[in-house]
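Figure S4 source data
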Amino acid sequence: MVAISAEKTNAIQAIFSRSKAVIGVIHCDPFPGSPKYRGKSVSDIVERALRDAENYISGGVHGLIIENHGDIPFSKPEDIGHETSALMAVITEKVRERFAVPLGINVLANAAIPAMAIARREAPISSA
């Protein structure tokens, strides 16, 4: 039989070099500017996310997803503030610095453009 289209790449295999993967989801505490934010410092929000990442990694997950889950009720994508994207970017970079696992970014609810901007990463700038 002749294939009509090319064989689809197995995304899990391509990303994780295995046929099955366990992915942990870091549900960040409420960010400044969100309805449920109660004054927790940004450094405490970041540290909590890093502790969650450490727990997942030590538990054997193969990858992580980072979400601003504490920001419920979620804003429409066009109403998400720059402060949310900025803090998600900081948390993502801190997790990347510490853990060598694939990362997914989900800026809730359904804010694909900020999530893609945060996830996009060039090679680190080296000082010469």
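Figure S5 source data
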Amino acid sequence: MDLLLALGCLTGFLALLAPTFPFFLFGSTFHSASPYAYVFTFVSSGLWLIYNSLDGGVPYLLSFGGVLLGIFYVFLFLYLSDAHDRRRTYLLFYVLGGTLFFFASVFVYIFTSESIYGHLCSAVSIVTALFPFWNMWTVIQTRSMATMPAPIIPALSH
């Protein structure tokens, strides 16, 4: 079961990153796509990392979660360094809110049962999984597929 969980995390991670993250990392601007999917994924990864570490989790899942958090931290830093003032303000609001939610969830985990915290992690993951629909709306508005994850691009381009 742990192997299936690791494979699910890896495929979700790769589907979210390709090709948008290299485009942002090596491109000249970040303004063409919304960073909110990455913010929610950042918060979701942190929640699962806490859940797995406090539950006596599997070491490779802990290291994978740490790497994932590091990559999303780099992305958010790069986005904030390039964003316009209005988008930067919104993003800082969401990152601050996500960080407060992240730390509040530690207290929820400590003072409640593991199953309630697991449901909280699952709810945030479901919200994160709904963000490709936001990307589709961006594609409809801009008529550019640069913000779509790789597995969706072939289905929409034919």
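The helical segments are 2-17, 20-26, 36-54, 59-82, 85-111, 114-129, 131-142, 152-157. Confidence is low (pLDDT under 50) at residues 150-158.
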